[in-house]
Amino acid sequence: MNRIGERRTPELKMLIVDDRKENLIAMQRILQSLECELFVASSGNEALSLTLRHDFALILLDVHMPEMDGFELAEILRSNEETKQIPIIFVTASNKEEQSVFKGYESGAVDYLFKPVNPDILLSKVRVFLELNMRKKELECIQSELERSNESLKEFAQVVSHDLRNPLNVISGLSELLLVRHSAGLNEKGKAYVSQIAETAGRMTALIADLLSYAQVNAKAAVVSEADLDEIVRLVVADLSATLEQCGGEVQVLDKLPVIAADSTQMYQLFQNLIGNGIKYHRPDCAPIVRISLQAPADVPEERSGVSVAIRIEDNGIGMKDDDIPHIFSAFRRLDNARGYEGTGLGLATVQKIVETHRGTLAVSSTLGQGTAFVITLPAEWSQDNAS
Ligand SMILES: Nc1ncnc2c1ncn2[C@@H]1O[C@H](COP(=O)(O)OP(=O)(O)OP(=O)(O)O)[C@@H](O)[C@H]1O
Ligand SMILES: [Mg+2]
């Protein structure tokens, strides 16, 4: 298999079109030193049929030919989806009339050479075009390789989640059964071991869920539709109610949040991670309060005003050091302040990816021991234009 990093040089083919045999021979002689397969055609029609069978990196095209001249042939090539990208070097006698015709070809990759052809100039022009074509082909190879590996990753994530979740569920279920039904047969140490097994299995289940949502945000294109942020945040808060009750925390939504053009599932993940962190990283002596508000237009960066809404998610938790802030978005990165708090370090990496996917921005400010504020800008409010 051809892997990224060990790419083979794609095969290059070039076509020379001229109605005079001696010109074709002369060109071939000059160009034979290039690592490129040379094809020749002595008429426009012959050239057309060759372009249908071969993928040419470049055509060297004589302008003056009987029947179909070089410009007519170029016109036909440009009108065909399969051949319109092929760069052309026109070979012509230097005269002003023709130079003005060349202007019509400015949009495509076009150059020209004047007769008598200087071999050095010919070689260097051809080299540039071939080099460009090679880079283009390499990029296409990388692109399709990336698409393939993205697909494999998606499949891998699905298989892993399925195959790992099942045995984990069995471990969790059996350890619970042991504790509930057979604890009489276990001494204190035995019970502690079983509880530890159940806890570890629970942590692993959470890790798999986090990994999956991170992988999915990376692999799937966002499905943009009407996303009602007010409703989404209420849903997130409802789903966090047990956690909030445990710590006596509160989430205050201070403004009515808008309906925007976004992927609702990803918006849920985004708020779940940010609000979840605000609750989780609370000071031991202080119940968490997470405040969600709309940032005033004056505080939205100028280049984004009118195209974005800005939302502030602020907590009164443990905070973090300024130096640490740039690291919190790396996958699996947890700061020292997270010691003693459960987590996998994937939440904010997922949030960042979601914001990027929506062409938004993300800013953080924090004071150690006092709290943290995240400000995200997201696409502007949903309008009829979004629907078309
Ligand atoms: N609101 C916050 N207050 C203080 N520290 C925070 C806050 N949010 C994030 N952090 C720090 O940033 C790190 C990365 O956060 P992130 O949400 O990515 O991971 P996590 O919460 O550790 O795990 P999980 O994958 O379960 O979300 C955290 O481990 C913590 O150190
Ligand atoms: Mg988190």
TrEMBL record:
Instruction: Please give the coiled-coil regions recorded for this protein.
Output: none
PROSITE patterns to which the protein is assigned, alphabetical: HIS_KIN (PS50109), RESPONSE_REGULATORY (PS50110)
What range(s) does the Response regulatory domain occupy?
13-130
Reactions that this protein is recorded to catalyse: ATP + protein L-histidine = ADP + protein N-phospho-L-histidine
Where is the PTM 4-aspartylphosphate found along the chain?
A: 62
| One example GO MF annotation | ATP binding
Among Gene3D superfamilies, the record links this protein to: 1.10.287.130, 3.40.50.2300, Histidine kinase-like ATPase, C-terminal domain
Q: What is this protein called?
A: histidine kinase
Native species: Paenibacillus chartarius
Taxonomy-wise, where does this protein's organism fall, top ranks first? Bacteria, Bacillati, Bacillota, Bacilli, Bacillales
